[in-house]
């Protein structure tokens, strides 16, 4: 192609000779204007503050480090020396927070990195810092519904009804229908926290699935006492409801076996038919337990789920289980059955500040406001 034809409009002919000079001049001006316009469009398409491609490898290293320490931990001193070079860190979540803070600095348009910073601050109970991070997100994107919903959640965690009401008004200004859904979620969470824990084994009519939540295995792959206590309660309720299916949930492997494997074997050894048992062995945490269990319940629909876990874990597990079932339009009732892990039942009924925080944290996650967007369930 001749140089003079590169920017020719479609359907036009530009000749190398024989064209009057004035026509050629006008054509050249049009071509130059077109080139300048195209260049301006390309420049305007790049977001202000977009990250430099030269930082891509560093950003990947930071994100990989952050998620590795989130899930598995690691040598904090090694992270200080090899990844952050000179920054003093005090635990695995310090590593996670620092990794996403730097990634956010290098790629300021990536608001998901800021969400990850805020999530790690929530995990570390640094509510003031998390609130400031969510406000920073809103300063860059005033329509960020997820950040505004978290501001309402933080106010509710603190029991600050005035701030919660103001945050909810702002949330409704962004999306009234979704804001109402979150209001109902928060109300239900408070209702569950206010209920007295149930320790009585129920006998339930209709189609029933018992969902027993796992607990971390010892390094040798054996059940620890917390899990054994949950299994004892699961056995009693399975015997009291002989037609119920039993779903055992837990997927973190130790010594080649998962929680689900160990739970299933224990129940079979105690006389529960293997044909009654469903194993969910892919989840890594409570959210994974609940989401995977809810997906299985879409196929194995039940009138009632009898949820078995420790009393210190039940309010959180029940809150997110009910929400996951609601999202899947499953009209399944959830009946809690606690394995006591407090000195007394009265002690088990008390809800502390830390528990309120993790209940709201996991409710936000299961609702779709993921703690680490694109990197975690």
Q: How does this model look, in words?
A:
The chain has 377 residues and is α/β, with parallel strands linked by helices. The protein has a domain at 208-348: 3-Layer(aba) Sandwich (Rossmann fold), CATH 3.40.50. Helix content is 57%, strand content 8%. A five-stranded parallel beta sheet has the order 3-2-1-4-5. Strand 4 (304-310), helix 13 and strand 5 (333-339) form a beta-alpha-beta unit. The longest helix has 25 residues, at 21-45. It is globular, with a radius of gyration of 28 Å.
Tally of helical segments: 15
User: Secondary-structure element sequence?
Assistant: HHHHHHHHHEHEHEHEHEHH
What's the count of strands?
5
Give the overall form.
Answer: globular
Second CATH tier, the architecture of one domain: 3-Layer(aba) Sandwich
Keywords for this structure?
377 residues, alpha/beta, Rossmann fold, 5-stranded parallel beta sheet, 5 strands, 57% helix, globular
List the helices and strands and how they pair.
Blueprint: H1 21-45, H2 56-72, H3 76-84, H4 92-106, H5 111-123, H6 127-140, H7 145-157, H8 161-174, H9 176-194, E1 208-213, H10 225-240, E2 245-249, H11 259-269, E3 277-280, H12 286-299, E4 304-310, H13 311-327, E5 333-339, H14 345-348, H15 353-367
Parallel strand pairs: 1-2, 1-4, 2-3, 4-5
């Amino acid at each position: 192609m001749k140089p003079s034809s590169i920017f020719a409009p479609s359907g036009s002919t530009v000749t190398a000779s024989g064209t009057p000079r004035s026509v050629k001049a006008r054509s050249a001006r049009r071509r130059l204007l077109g080139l300048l316009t195209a260049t301006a469009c390309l420049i305007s398409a790049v977001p202000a503050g977009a990250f430099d491609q030269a930082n891509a490898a560093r950003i990947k290293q930071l994100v990989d480090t952050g998620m590795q320490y989130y899930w598995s931990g690691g040598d904090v001193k090694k992270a200080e020396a090899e990844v952050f070079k000179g920054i003093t860190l005090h635990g695995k979540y310090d590593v996670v927070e620092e990794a996403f803070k730097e990634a956010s600095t290098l790629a300021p348009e990536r608001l998901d990195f800021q969400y990850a910073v805020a999530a790690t601050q929530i995990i570390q109970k640094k509510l003031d810092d998390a609130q400031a991070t969510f406000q920073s997100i809103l300063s860059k994107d005033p329509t960020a519904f997820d950040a505004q919903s978290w501001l309402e959640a933080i106010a509710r965690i603190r029991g600050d009804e005035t701030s919660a009401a103001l945050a909810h008004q702002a949330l409704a200004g962004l999306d009234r229908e979704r804001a109402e859904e979150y209001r109902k979620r928060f109300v239900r969470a408070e209702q569950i926290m206010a209920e007295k824990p149930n320790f009585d084994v129920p006998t339930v009519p209709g189609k029933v699935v018992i969902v027993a939540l796992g607990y971390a295995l010892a390094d040798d792959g054996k059940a620890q006492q917390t899990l054994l206590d949950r299994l004892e309660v699961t056995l009693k309720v399975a015997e009291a409801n002989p037609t119920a299916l039993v779903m055992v949930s837990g997927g973190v492997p130790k010594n080649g076996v998962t929680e689900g494997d160990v739970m299933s074997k224990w129940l079979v050894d105690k006389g529960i038919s293997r044909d009654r048992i469903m194993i969910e062995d892919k989840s890594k945490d409570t959210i994974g337990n609940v989401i995977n269990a809810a997906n299985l319940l879409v196929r194995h629909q039940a009138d009632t789920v009898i949820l078995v876990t420790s009393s210190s874990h039940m309010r959180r597990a029940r809150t997110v289980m009910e929400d996951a079932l609601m999202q899947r339009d499953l009209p399944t009732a959830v009946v809690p059955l606690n394995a006591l892990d407090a000195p007394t039942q009265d002690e088990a009924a008390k809800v502390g500040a830390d528990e309120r925080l993790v209940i709201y944290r996991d409710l936000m996650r299961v609702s779709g406001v993921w703690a680490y967007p694109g990197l975690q369930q």
